[in-house]
Every structure is written in structure tokens, then in C-alpha cells.
Design a protein that fits this description.
Radius of gyration of chain A: 21 Å
CATH superfamily of the largest domain in chain B: P-loop containing nucleotide triphosphate hydrolases
Radius of gyration of chain B: 25 Å
Distance between the termini of chain B: 32 Å
CATH topology of chain A: ABC transporter involved in vitamin B12 uptake, BtuC
Shape of chain B: globular
Oligomer: heterodimer
CATH topology of the largest domain in chain B: Rossmann fold
Number of domains of chain A: 1
Number of helices of chain B: 18
CATH class of chain A: Mainly Alpha
Number of helices of chain A: 15
Largest interface: A-B, 31 and 36 residues
Largest sheet of chain A: 2 strands, antiparallel
Order of helices and strands of chain A: HHHHHHHHEEHHHHHHH
Shape of chain A: globular
Number of strands of chain A: 2
Strand content of chain B: 15-25%
CATH class of the largest domain in chain B: Alpha Beta
Strand order of the largest sheet of chain B: 5-6-7-3-8-9
Strand order of the largest sheet of chain A: 1-2
Structural class of chain A: mainly alpha
């Protein structure tokens, strides 16, 4: 809002106002909302500020956060991927399934959970590539194509396990999801590391800038000689791998893989990304903003649980609060593009 | 000259229309008789579009007289009255492709009960089409119609709304020649039924075939009225160009005086292509430091030629040789940019700039790899490059981190040029480089290109503006996919008439 006036202002005041608006990126608008939620949480229940509570919040936020980071990359590039939640469930499942089945069939994979880890990421990448081919090369509508993938992949999860839950995961696979380092959950450290790496990548690596250009104006990106298709393909693959990692963390935390792992999570990821100022039209948003949105969403749900909102009403309340939060971020200009 | 008012459909006398500081209409007069077909001719910016917007009631004149059907025109807000009086068939389609002809004809004004009677609607549409001798089935989806047929539906819609005065805005620009003949025949039939036409065209050869009267506009004023069958093309062209442009040499003016190239100057680009959009093959030999122009209106094929050379249009066969090496197909934009072919696209907002990104980001977008050191982008080098470019190009902004969407058109175009030049290309392809740009920015943009040209940049310039084409060493003029002439030193009049489909050879002068 401020910069439209600066054109007529003197150079010095223009400069300082510029700095001001540079500093207050739209995604910062979520901060006051986060503070309000924290205060409300503290007032409602003294347990809110406890280590145990934060431990749980931070773990959940890490899993949702990594999934949302993947989705955010796709959204910034101007595309869509609903099926990430199925990848979240299917990739760790296939990894563990290989381990267990292969062990039984004497392939001697049972002793090599590292191989399972590789399989998990490979499956994530493959599913990403599959969606990429559908959307980019076959030019299917991204919404419908990835919705179909979502259903297809969830169906494979069910079919593979006949609806049963896989348990007895090897330590290497549960470790990232359920251990701590100096009292901090490892999954949170992983998420923080990814946040840092992706933030630098998006702002300071040329492919990061290309993603914004492709999402902001695909025609212009083409004119600039950016290999649009290859960049988009890469983003689908990376998003799939991030979803696989997020799923692995959650599987580790609950020490099992139900066939419904990750179900309905994509809606939370979308809500978090939009709350954090990521545009659904592409070209706008940051990884940090999206993570702020994740934190907000998880905290809201936590406060609701702590303040003993009946379990059956938590979803309805969350939905309502997301709408209120969207309205607030609209007022503060966080989602100009939407 | 003024006939009795009952015969006059439109009488405009001394009309003035200002937009801010610019005068779009400067004392324009025109009178259109009922039942005639009147040609409106003028170059871009002559005031044709403004006149159309006044005749269709989208704008009002600031001063002067305007009578429609011998009376004061309806209020601008009375859209129904305007719709019944005048209809305009624009260059872009205004039909809904997925609905049928009948639905499109009565869209938004279906007279009937609550529920639609398809049989009734189709019968009504068939009757309307038949009464104007338009042989199209009302149940055909508009998507399946050819360009010419869709145009006839638009005309039928205008007529069925009660309008007996139809403005055709460059109706033949997108038609193939058989469709043009068809359209001309139809228009002549409808004239026989008392319909009045205002016919805007860039193709002067069509004028005597369809029109009775001609009005030529220049600089917002009517400069020539006459009988379409008596005026010669030369009369019309010199009226369009005006005294000042008539003898003006296009090349070797004081603005662009270049020494001729040394015979040893290397050939940068050699192209022998057959595009599917063109009848004639493209033969081009471009040497370092040379500027070759491609002149032509929309539909001439010049745009496709430029896009093909830049890798954005692939429906061609033949060979492109760049710096002595034949390029391999598929010739795609990333390869083209890498091989040193840069494009300045025609629509900076839609296809040129990334609106949500900063000036700095946009200026370095094609050359990000060059700014990468040790895995990450070198922020300082990018900033320095952008700042230097900002100074050189004279981009008015308060910071290179400013969003490019906030800049004026001229400044955006400068940023886009900076972006295209950021890879140090050996060939620069410019599409209408100064369209919609203020005069000061125009000069800067051409100056920058000239500076690079002196350093050996080869330039291809696609335009229909003689002012822009004056920058070229030689110009190829294309009309409807055919190369009409290729020559150096054409003057404005020759160029304009060649683009309008009339090539005045040097001897005729």
C-alpha cells in the first residue's frame, strides 16, 4: 500500500519508506495473529506453555511443515498437487513393505533399512515425476489430475496392506520421527534445516528465482530462456520427496504406518500455505511464510484441544478460525494476489 | 457537400476529444449517408479507434457537433438505444465459443417464457439468418465456425438487435482471401438491403470493392473525403502520410546515419525458412551491426517470422544458421537464448515481464547462470548490474528492488530491453519495441540498441510504424504471408503503401 505514494515523495523519504515496506513482507502479517493465539492459549490453560505440550506441537508442525514446504514450492511455480498427502502415506509404506516382504522372501533386505530409506525417497520422487508428466507434458488440468492421483495412490496403500497397519518399523526409520537431540525433537531440527536451506535456495539460487518467474509469468519465463518444463518437473519431484520425508517422520512418531497415513492432510497444508501468504495463482509467497501458517494452524488446533472443545467440534472450529485468520491476513494485505 | 439531414445517418462536425494532455480528435468532421458503405482509413494513432468509441456511444466528444439519425445521440448510459442504433464488429471475437449460433444471437435478450423453447429459439434464429441470406445452421456451436462465418454471425447479431449501421473494424485482417471475397460479397448484398457500413481496413485494395465513400484521418483530423471509385491509392496514401512524411527518406536520416558495413563483416544469422503461416519463404542474411526491418500489419506473417527465429514458433521447415553453425531442431527458447538470440516480445505485461518480481530480478532473469558463483547467486554482482542498467537505460524508479509492475510503460520497456541484453546476445529481435511508450523513452530505447549495434549486435525489428522502421538499414515488407518488397532507403509513403498492399516502385514516383 505504501509504495504507490512514494513515487511523488522526495528521494530520501522514498528510500526510507521503501526499506520499511521491504522489511514488512506480506507474510509477516501472520506474526501478530500467532502472538494472539499464544496469549489466548496461555490464558486458557496453564499447560499450554509446558515442555510436553510444545514437544507435541512442534512434532506435528514439523510433519505438516515439511509437507507444506513441498506444496509451497509447487504453488510458487504456479501449479497444484493434491496428491502429496497420498505420497505422504504411500512412500514410507512402500519402503517398509519392501523391507518386510523382501525379508520374508529371503532377499535379505531386512538387514538394510538404509535401502528402505532410499526406496522411500525414490517412491516420493517417482510419484512426483508421474504427476509432473500428467500436468506438464500431457497438460491435464492439475486439479483433476492430482485429485485422481490422490485417490489412486491412497487406493494402492489400501490394496498393498489390505487395510492393515504396518508396525515393527526398524529403528533407522523411526529414529527421525520419535527421538530428540538435547531435548528438541529431531523432526523439528530436520524441518528447521529444510526451512533454512529452502529459504536460501528460493531467494539466492538461480533455480529458486526461476520458480518465481515461472509461477509469476510463464510466457515471460520462456522469453527469458528458462526451461519451463524442466523446472516444473523438478519442482514436482522435490515436492514428492518432501512429502515422503514428512510421512516418514509421522510414521516414526506413531511407530507404525496405517493405510490412512496422511489422509486429509493436504487441506491443512493448503490452508497453512495460504495463511502464510502463498498465492494460489503462483509467483508469490515464501517458505518462511508458509511455515508461519503451519505454526498458526497447529497452535490453533492445540489451543482448541487444551481448552477442552469437544473432540467432535474441533474440525468445525478449526475451519471457522481459518476463515477468521484469512480475513485478518486479508486486512493486513498478506494475500494481495489471492 | 452536406446533404439533407434525413439522408444523413451520421454527421460529425468539428469534433474534439482530449485524453489528459493528448488530443485524440482535433476538429474532425465526417458525414455518413444512409445506405452507403464508408471507408475509414488512417494509420495507428490517427483517431480511428476514438471515432469508433464515439460512434458506438462509449465516449462523448468534448466539443463539436454530433448528430445520429439527424438528432442528438442518446445518453451514454442508455445502452439499449445505442445498441439499436449502432453495432461494431471488432477484430477480436465477442461470441461464446461453446454456445450455438442461435444462443449467441439471443444471448441475454431471449424473449420468451421462463423456460427456453429450443425449437422456438432455433426457428427464430434461422429466420433471422435467412432474412439476411446468411447460410449458417443455428444449431452449430460457434467453436466449429470459421473466422469468416463467425464474423457473419456477429453481423447478424448486430442486425437482429435492430441496428442498421454496422462498423467493421479491420474485418479482413484474419481472413484468407476466399473468405475476404465472401465477406465483401455479403457486405455488398446487405448494402442492397439498406444497411450502412463503416469499414475500417488497412488493405486499400479492398476499399473500392466494398465502399462508396472514403474518409482519411490523420492526427485526429479528417484530411481527405472522396468517392471510393475515383480516388487513387496514391491520393489516399499521401493523405495518410501527410506533407511532412511524403518525401521523407526512411534510412540515412540525421538520426540514423551509419557508414556502410565493411565487406568482411561476418554474417551472424542466415535463415532460409518456409513458415506455415506464410506463402513466401523467408530468406534473410544478417550481418553483425546490421538492422533489418520486417514491416507488416497483423496477419502479414512478420510476427511469426520473428517468433520462429527466437524459437517460440516451431511450424517451419528449412534452416537457421547462426554464426556459421546450423542450429538443430527443436529450436526452443532456452537454446536460442543460450546461442545468443534475444527477443523483446510485443506485449511487455503479458509476455515480457514478471509483474510480481523486482526490476533487478527481471533484468537478470535470462542471465541468472552468469550471476551464479559458488552454487548461489552473487547478490552484489546482480545489484551492480541492475544499478548500472538502471542508469544507462534511465529507468525512473526509487530502487532496483521496486516491483516492476509499479513502473510506467516506458520504464517497463526499458527494463525489458535491459533483460534481453543481459545475456550479451549477438542477435536481438525486437517486436514493436516502442509501442505504447512515451517519446523520451522511445529515443532512449533506440539509442541503447544503436549503441549495442555499433559493438556488433545484429538487429531484427518487426513493426508497422514507419517511425520505428526508420531505424533499419533495409526493410522487408510483408502482406498476408507474401514478401512484397525488400529494399533500403524506402520513404514513409512507399513503406505505408507497401504495407497497405500497394507497392509503388521507385520508377512510378
Amino acid at each position: 500500500m505504501t509504495h504507490t505514494h512514494t513515487t511523488n515523495a522526495t528521494p530520501t523519504s522514498g528510500q526510507s519508506r521503501r526499506l520499511f515496506s521491504d522489511f514488512f513482507q506480506p507474510e509477516w502479517a501472520i506474526l501478530p495473529v500467532l502472538v494472539v493465539v499464544m496469549i489466548v492459549g496461555t490464558l486458557l490453560n496453564s499447560a499450554f506453555l509446558s515442555y510436553d505440550n510444545f514437544y507435541g506441537v512442534v512434532q506435528q508442525a514439523s510433519e505438516l511443515g515439511i509437507l507444506t514446504m513441498g506444496l509451497t514450492l509447487v504453488l510458487i511455480a504456479g501449479k497444484f498437487d493434491l496428491s502429496l498427502e497420498s505420497t505422504f502415506g504411500l512412500a514410507p509404506m512402500v519402503g517398509v513393505y519392501c523391507l518386510l516382504e523382501a525379508g520374508g522372501s529371503g532377499l535379505n533386505l531386512a538387514n538394510s533399512p538404509i535401502l528402505a530409506l532410499i526406496v522411500i525417497f525414490a517412491v516420493g520422487a517417482l510419484i512426483g515425476a508421474f504427476n509432473g508428466v500428467l500436468v506438464i507434458f500431457l497438460r491435464f488440468n492439475a486439479f483433476i489430475a492430482t485429485l485422481a492421483s490422490l485417490i489412486l495412490l491412497r487406493g494402492i496403500s489400501l490394496g498393498l496392506t489390505r487395510g492393515e497397519t504396518l508396525s515393527d518399523l526398524p529403528v533407522l526409520l523411526t529414529f527421525p520421527g520419535d527421538s530428540t537431540f538435547l531435548g528438541v525433537p529431531v523432526s523439528f531440527l530436520v524441518a528447521l534445516a529444510l526451512l533454512a536451506v529452502l529459504t536460501i535456495f528460493m531467494s539466492r539460487h538461480r533455480i529458486g528465482r526461476m520458480l518465481y518467474a515461472v509461477g509469476g509469468n510463464q510466457q515471460a519465463a520462456r522469453v527469458a530462456g528458462i526451461p519451463v518444463e524442466r523446472v516444473l518437473m523438478g519442482v514436482f519431484i522435490v515436492a514428492g520427496m518432501l512429502a515422503a520425508l514428512a510421512g516418514l517422520l509421522q510414521a516414526g512418531r506413531i511407530a507404525s504406518i496405517p493405510s490412512s497415513l496422511g489422509q486429509n492432510l493436504i487441506f491443512n497444508a493448503f490452508a497453512a500455505a495460504v495463511l502464510g501468504g502463498v498465492s494460489l495463482n503462483g509467483g508469490r509467497g515464501t517458505i518462511a511464510g508458509a511455515c508461519g501458517g503451519v505454526l498458526l494452524l497447529v497452535l490453533i488446533q492445540d489451543v482448541l484441544v487444551l481448552s477442552q472443545v469437544p473432540a467432535y467440534w474441533i474440525n468445525a472450529t478449526t475451519g471457522g478460525i481459518i476463515l477468521v485468520a484469512l480475513y485478518i491476513s486479508k486486512l493486513s494485505g498478506a494475500d494481495k494476489a489471492n | 457537400m452536406l446533404a439533407s439531414s434525413s439522408e444523413q445517418l451520421v454527421t460529425i462536425d468539428g469534433a474534439v476529444k482530449r485524453f489528459g494532455g493528448t488530443i485524440a480528435l482535433n476538429g474532425l468532421s465526417i458525414s455518413i449517408k444512409r445506405g452507403e458503405s464508408h471507408a475509414l482509413i488512417g494509420r495507428n494513432g490517427a483517431g480511428k479507434s476514438t471515432l469508433v468509441s464515439i460512434l458506438t456511444g462509449l465516449r462523448a466528444i468534448d466539443s463539436g457537433m454530433f448528430l445520429l439519425n439527424g438528432a442528438a445521440p442518446p445518453a451514454l448510459s442508455d445502452r439499449n438505444a445505442w445498441r439499436e442504433a449502432v453495432a461494431c464488429v471488432y477484430q477480436h471475437r465477442t461470441l461464446v465459443p461453446d454456445l450455438t449460433v442461435a444462443e449467441n444471437l439471443y444471448l441475454g435478450r431471449y424473449q420468451g417464457k421462463q423456460m427456453i423453447s429450443w425449437r422456438g429459439l432455433n426457428r427464430q434464429a434461422a429466420a433471422a439468418l435467412e432474412s439476411w441470406d446468411i447460410p449458417i445452421l443455428p444449431t452449430t456451436p460457434v467453436r466449429d465456425l470459421g473466422v469468416g462465418e463467425a464474423q457473419m454471425v456477429e453481423i447478424a447479431r448486430a442486425l437482429s438487435q435492430g441496428s442498421r449501421f454496422v462498423i467493421l473494424d479491420e474485418p479482413t485482417a484474419q481472413l484468407i482471401s476466399s473468405e475476404i471475397d465472401h465477406l465483401i460479397a455479403r457486405v455488398n448484398e446487405l448494402r442492397g438491403k439498406g444497411i450502412t457500413f463503416l469499414f475500417i481496413s488497412h488493405h486499400l485494395d479492398e476499399v473500392p470493392k466494398v465502399c462508396d465513400a472514403v474518409t482519411v484521418l490523420r492526427n485526429g483530423r479528417d484530411v481527405l473525403h472522396g468517392d471510393a471509385h475515383k480516388l487513387t491509392t496514391a491520393d489516399i496514401v499521401s493523405a495518410m502520410v501527410g506533407e511532412e512524411g511524403a518525401g521523407k527518406a526512411l534510412t540515412a536520416t540525421e538520426k540514423v546515419s551509419r557508414p556502410s558495413l565493411a565487406p568482411a563483416t561476418p554474417v551472424v544469422l542466415k535463415a532460409n525458412l518456409q513458415l506455415d503461416a506464410c506463402d513466401d519463404p523467408l530468406n534473410l542474411t544478417l550481418r553483425a551491426g546490421e538492422v533489418v526491418g520486417f514491416a507488416g500489419h497483423s496477419g502479414s506473417g512478420t510476427r511469426q517470422i520473428a517468433l520462429a527465429l527466437a524459437g517460440h514458433y516451431s511450424r517451419w521447415s528449412g534452416e537457421i544458421v547462426l554464426n556459421g553453425k546450423s542450429v538443430s531442431k527443436p529450436w526452443k527458447p532456452p537454446t536460442a537464448v543460450k546461442c545468443g538470440v534475444a527477443l523483446l516480445p510485443e506485449d511487455r505485461i503479458k509476455t515480457g515481464l514478471v509483474g510480481g518480481m523486482s526490476i533487478e530480478d527481471n533484468m537478470t532473469l535470462p542471465s541468472l547462470k552468469a550471476f551464479t558463483s559458488r552454487f548461489l547467486l552473487n547478490g552484489k554482482a546482480r545489484r551492480k548490474f541492475a544499478e548500472e542498467n538502471r542508469t544507462n537505460l534511465g529507468v525512473v524508479c526509487h530502487s532496483v528492488r521496486q516491483n516492476v509492475g509499479e513502473l510506467s510503460g516506458g520504464n517497463q520497456q526499458k527494463v525489458l530491453l535491459g533483460s534481453a541484453l543481459s545475456t550479451n546476445p549477438s542477435v536481438l529481435i525486437l517486436l514493436h519495441p516502442t509501442a505504447g511508450v512515451d517519446i523520451a523513452s522511445k529515443a532512449t530505447i533506440l539509442d541503447i540498441v544503436e549503441q549495442r549495434r555499433r559493438q556488433g549486435l545484429a538487429v531484427i525489428l518487426v513493426s508497422d510504424e514507419p517511425e520505428e522502421l526508420a531505424f533499419c538499414d533495409r526493410v522487408q515488407v510483408w502482406v498476408r504471408g507474401k514478401k512484397v518488397v525488400e529494399r533500403a532507403g524506402m520513404n514513409e509513403q512507399e513503406l505505408v503503401s507497401a504495407m497497405e498492399g500497394f507497392h509503388i516502385s521507385a520508377e512510378e514516383k
